[in-house]
Please model this.
Amino acid sequence: MRAVVQRVRWAQVTVDGQVVGRIGPGLLVLLGVGRHDSPETAEGLADKLARLRVFDDEHGKMNRAPDEAGAEFLVVSQFTLYGDVRKGRRPSFTDAAPADMAQTLYERFQDALRRRGFRVESGRFGARMQVRLENDGPVTLWFDTSDGLQYN
Model:
């Protein structure tokens, strides 16, 4: 899985002009699912993000996890994170998971966050979406589970 994670003051996603997901302070997760991902990958990445210390403590240091900060999650499917642009001018998406597999693991990832006690909003899988946000920091991080990401 690949994820671009932004600490936000607020974020929302709309489909056909209608807001389908909105959060206050928390993490916006743009999530791509690869063809070699598994339920264990989704669980591991959710656990990593649930314990990620990127929220400010009383001294202004990034030292608090999402649960300590009362953070919410907005998860948006983003298969284009698997776009390969090394050759030519048009991205290749051969490393992205097929839609049925990607949707299952996208939902599994969200469920894993909910089981950890978080409020989770989402976009609509497969839809053309518009995402608005106010990045806080700015803080933006990149995760790729195929890069040997350690979950502890």
